Amino acid sequence: MPMQIPDLTSLKSARTGRRVAVCAAAAVISMIMASVAPQPATTHAAVNLNVHVHDDFFHPAGAFIVGSSTDHSLAAAACEVPSPASTCDAVIYVGDTITWVSPAPLATHLHTVTECTDGSFTVCGAGVAAANPIDDSGSRNPPSPGPSGWPYGPLTFNTAGTYYYRCEVHPSVMRGRVVVLTIPPPQVVGGRGEFADAATLPAGRTSGGGDALSPSIIAAIAAGIAALIALGVVALWARDRRT
Ligand SMILES: [Cu+2]
Predict the structure, then answer these.
(1) 32 vs 71, more confident
(2) How many angstroms separate the alpha carbon of residue 133 from the centre of ligand 1?
(3) Higher-scoring residue by pLDDT: 220, 3
(4) Between 85 and 213, residue with greater pLDDT
(5) In the list 45, 98, 143, 158, which could disulfide-bond 202, CB 3.0-4.6 Å?
(6) Is 207 among the domain residues?
(7) 141 CB-contact burial (10 Å; exposed 0-12 / middle 13-18 / buried 19+)
(8) pLDDT digits over 45-70, tens only?
(9) Beta partners for 166?
(10) Is residue 87 part of a domain?
């Protein structure tokens, strides 16, 4: 019986065909992933954050639920100190605004919002820090709104950084920081709230929630499904070539 000699030309052709198919599948997957991948956000809708003026401390709206004596004591313990805790910081993003408010009955004393040069809170006054937009509110009476009272602002922060201020009536304990970040925030914010500050949420942002799939997760799922389909097609094609 004559020996069977394999057809080398057809074997090479099959291998080349598989390689082409795998490369084509990889290209399709890459194109799908590139088309569905979320693009980084480049814009941020400016929002306002209220900072509450108390006797005698500052804190951003929502950091503490001030309304019971216990929560008021917690807020005072954290914020009415020479170096307030980070929970007392007003954290915003470039382009956002801050408004200092003192809705009754938060405060009964006169207070000011006066910029300082740095975290020592020792050099303070109107215009002492050129980059600090806080300047000086002057002495303001509760309640808000009032003829000589609050609010102070909104003031816009266009440069990232940390800005310091204090009350000139209570300079050793009534100190605050505004931290301005450059990265846009997520489009879903938490459900913190106090008084009517939730009304300052921008259009398109919702309070609470957070259960919806993010665009990146949807893109990952779509890419995974596309990859599975492509691999299945390649496997079927390779099996057909062997039979
Ligand atoms: Cu004060």
Answers:
(1) 71
(2) 19
(3) 220
(4) 85
(5) 45
(6) no
(7) middle
(8) 899 999 999 999 999 998 887 766 77
(9) 114, 175
(10) yes
In a domain, residue 153? The reply is yes
Range of the domain at 159: 48-186
Q: Which residues of 64-84 are buried (b: 16+ CB within 10 A; e: fewer)?
A: bebeeeeebebbbebbbeeeb
pLDDT at residue 191 in the model: 46
Is the previous residue joined to 145 through a cis bond, with omega within 30 degrees of 0? yes
Whole-prediction pTM: 0.60
Q: What is the mean pLDDT of the chain?
A: 75
User: How close is the Cα of 79 to the center of ligand 1, in Å?
Assistant: 12
Are the beta carbons of 207 and 189 closer than 8 angstroms? yes
Give the Cα separation of 101 and 8 in Å (integer). 84
Structural domain contains residue 121: yes
Q: How far is CA 69 from CA 32, 54, 82, 117, in A?
A: 57, 13, 22, 34
Measured in Å, residue 193 CA sits from the centre of ligand 1 at 24
Specify the CATH number for the domain of residue 54: 2.60.40.420
Provide the pLDDT for residue 106: 76
Tell me the two tokens of residue 117: 């040069």
Q: Which one of 4-8, 133-137, 217-221 scores highest in mean pLDDT?
A: 133-137
Total domains in the chain come to: 1
pLDDT value at residue 198: 36
Q: Report the separation in Å between the CA atom of 219 and the middle of ligand 1, taken as the mean of its atom positions.
A: 51
What is the 167 CA–ligand 1 centroid distance (Å)? 5
Contact residues for 197 (Cβ-Cβ < 8 A; gap 6+)? 49, 50, 61, 62
d(CA 11, CA 55): 86
